[in-house]
Amino acid sequence: MTIPTSLARAARNAVQTSPILQDPAALRARSRPQLRRYEVSALAANGDIVDSRHIAPALPLFENAFSAFTRGSLIETEAGQIAVEDLLPGDRIVTRDGAAETLMWKGSTLIVPGRPDAKGRCHPLVRIMADSFGMQVPMSDVLAGPAARLLKTPGHLRKLAGQSPLLTPVAEFIDGMNAIETAPPTAVQLFHLCLRQHSVIRIGGLEFETYHPGTNALHLISPALREVYLDLFPHISSIYDFGPMAYARAGDGEINALSA
Q1: pTM
Q2: Residue 209, by phi and psi: left (phi above 0), alpha (psi -120 to 50) or beta?
Q3: Is the Cβ–Cβ distance between 222 and 259 less than 8 Å?
Q4: Greatest CA separation found in the chain?
Q5: Model confidence over 147-172: pLDDT tens digits?
């Protein structure tokens, strides 16, 4: 007796989709959240520097707080340019408006850009070539992490932003010539920085934002995850301590929120 094609397809789909017919061990492995190690250095209220290591979920909200700047990125400070890995909480970072703000927090993690994670997501870096945005802008190639945002509006977003400057993910500038995607197969150390307030700082002549979770980020996770997330930032006591955002962002809903 020949099994009808439609029946055979239905049986195959049932095996692939029914939890009852799947391997329980495989189901447990699939549902188990992927974890990542995060390193934190923060300025305590008494002026001490507190270093800590955390194991937390490898979710975008968490990873974005640690993956903007690559090792070797030169940050403008009152003492001159300092590599991001050598910065210490308490250092004074020069912001876009020329003022100096205290570095309150530095976070770092290791990511393999060329290796997909458990959910199939990759974390490519973006190399911005020298002189891509004008003479000496940047002054030399700048390698940025997946969470980096530039205070610059690409052409395809100008209708949305109007004349206002927009914090735009570096991936939006990839064109294969001035900005290219790169995914090394080995681990890369990435960093992010928090000042006393959300700001824009310079790296190689390019203007990047400091870390801020965004206006809607913590509304989308459970209270338990929110506590784990806030534990990564010992210099604050609540989400409101991040303060207001300095500029609107592309892709996070802040454009409408700030222009309403």
Answers
A1: 0.83
A2: beta
A3: no
A4: 83
A5: 999 999 887 777 766 677 899 999 99
